[in-house]
Amino acid sequence: MARKLGNTPLAFDEMMNADSSPRRPYKDYHEWYSSQDRARLITKSRDAENIFRKTGITFAVYGHADSSEKLIPFDLIPRIISGREWRKLAQGIEQRVIALNAFLDDIYHKQEIIRAGRIPRQLIEKNETFLPQMIGFKPPGGVYTHIVGTDIVRTGEDQFYVLEDNARTPSGVSYMLENRETMMQMFPELFHQNKVRPVQNYPNLLRQSLASLAPPGCSGRPRVAVLTPGIYNSAYYEHAFLADQMGVELVEGSDLRVIDGKVKMRTTRGYEAIDVLYRRVDDDFLDPLTFRPESALGIPGIMDVYRSGNITIANAPGTGICDDKAIYSYMPEIVEFYTGRKAILENVPTWRCSEPDSLKYVLEHLEELVVKEVHGSGGYGMLVGPTATKRERALFADKLKARPGSYIAQPTLSLSTVPILVNKGVAPRHVDLRPYVLVSDKVQIIPGGLTRVALKAGSLVVNSSQGGGTKDTWVLED
Amino acid sequence: MLGRTANGLYWMFRYIERAENTARLIDAGLRMSLTRTDSRDEDWDGVLQSAGVREDYDKVHPALSSMDAVDYLLRDKANGSSVLSCIEAARNNARMVRTALTRETWEAVNECWIDLKHVFARKARSTDLPEIIETIKRRAGLIRGAFHGTMLRDDIYNFARIGTFIERADNTARILDVKYYVLLPAISQVGSSLDNMQWESILRSVSAHRSYGWVYDGEYTPSNIAHFLILNARMPRSLAFSYEKIVSNLCFLGQTYGETHAAHETASTTLTLLQNRTMEDVMDQGLHEFIEEFIVQNNRLGQEIADGYRFYQ
């Protein structure tokens, strides 16, 4: 299976067929686009940028002192997914999310998957994202991953792959919402012509979903809060946006204190209890008493409150293990083990460099592979073989040989393309897709998501920190 | 509401007020140098003093010059009270309390910051100054408009207003503190052109040279000017007006929360004093002493509000 899928210039284009006719989901949009005045679209594109800048939809790039706030470029050609395509994706995502929760429950309780020999014990227990503090503890409602953002890539008409599961703290949902808002402001007519499924109720659904998993002892309307590291965090805009849209408090660690066995926030009238904490800080920074003693962001003692069942933390501590790329490579086994069925959505074939045969293969085929750190994210610390220089590959090979267990490798997928607006018209660019999933007593998948697009011609790196942009993502009603 | 949010709102509005006040002080300073034939760089001494940054200026600049003073007041990041520093601080606070603000208010603050950052990217030429001052005033006005037009009149509003008026009272008191000697009847030679100039400058630094004329029928006397800035409760930058607003907003907070703090007592005492005194009383006590005491009280009130409403851990 691990054969080269190719980085051919003839990537699958989601809008146009080879014969220059539009693909079906794009038919109406293409017709509309063809009748548009280009100058007007360029103006609209600038308007969109101004809307984003004015609204303050910015993110911080670490290490850029001079320009500490950046805009994520927004392309105004939507990415369109048909209802049929979406149904398959949604089924696959639901299956996967259910499996992830069952997996987390299992590794923190009976560990049947290890005993069944499907996953090596050391991969779980030696993993730094595995939290022994969670062993034997069942979070309220048995839910570990309240919010998931499954990264999906496409290589053909029916070829979809899951690239990452993002079960810890998936970000970007505010862009999904703001992109739609911006599109509706700029091109209301498009939403009359196309039956686009709405995404705007996400904040409501999120609040309901979080509130429904309040601790059993909570009486009355559960008090929900979003925990942010503060205004200098790269995703601060999103934290504030979500708190605002849900109508809940946006708190920092310094606002919170454990009093009488509850987590309470300092208000102008005194300390008031919180029932559900949607935390946008990493496990390490949650509780200095349990994790990092030097952390100034955390709330001392919150893990004790959690373990005694007096607060819900979303996502649960210890879910980060699902984002480990070595664990990812076992997802087909994990899905089958817990759901009893084959995974509906495929994994990208993955070589675990910890295995000598795989390492040998990877080293011999570096020029055609993508190599990633198992704990990495944001597109940092990875090698894209086909576009790297010889020297970069040689340097990376040394790193690989020194710490093979820290890396996995995948074929360079020829990601599908969607056109973006460029100076001379439109040009295809590679995209991925992150739909957002809410888990409570049910699994809700928001019809849409964040489409990230590599703005540089030929580039496969879609991360906003590395020159990626975004598009509005339409799921059609059909 | 979080104590930190109340703190953020309070400081956000203090900084917006301060930015506008600094712009007004510069405006008055420029005006003075334009209208006087013997204008000197030393004229900026009083402006820097009124802005409360005279000593800090000396740390950065070896000598007093009008362009250095203007640059220091407008856009020097080393000056925490420069217009640019204030707007950045206001916007950072607004970002922190984003969930307490309407979209319109947030965007007005954010656009003010975007606009002024652009304006202040390089040192201003003296020919550009009138337009820059105008931009600052207009941006501050847009924030005020968005705020008044869209915000719910709840505790969020109250903390924002209290910040505005504590800052404003402090600013007006400072101007008086620096220029009090011009307003002493014993020293000033009523009617001299120098006095007229100084008086007008004081009134300009609180944007009140026109309204003063309406209220006192164009009669420029030191006692009337002092009265206007201290005791006249219709003058929106006077100490009495500021304290009426502070007391009424604290009163709303007291009703909303069902409890009062030391701050309520302090603010009412100061207001009563401002309402019951005459200018003669103030002059008898000594204008300088009166102002100094007021500034101390005003700072204490700020501290009591922070304590009462749990601004800090």
Automatic annotation (TrEMBL), chain B:
<dbReference type="InterPro" id="IPR051680">
    <property type="entry name" value="ATP-dep_Glu-Cys_Ligase-2"/>
</dbReference>
<dbReference type="InterPro" id="IPR007296">
    <property type="entry name" value="DUF403"/>
</dbReference>
<protein>
    <submittedName>
        <fullName>Putative alpha-E superfamily protein</fullName>
    </submittedName>
</protein>
<feature type="domain" description="DUF403">
    <location>
        <begin position="1"/>
        <end position="309"/>
    </location>
</feature>
<dbReference type="Pfam" id="PF04168">
    <property type="entry name" value="Alpha-E"/>
</dbReference>
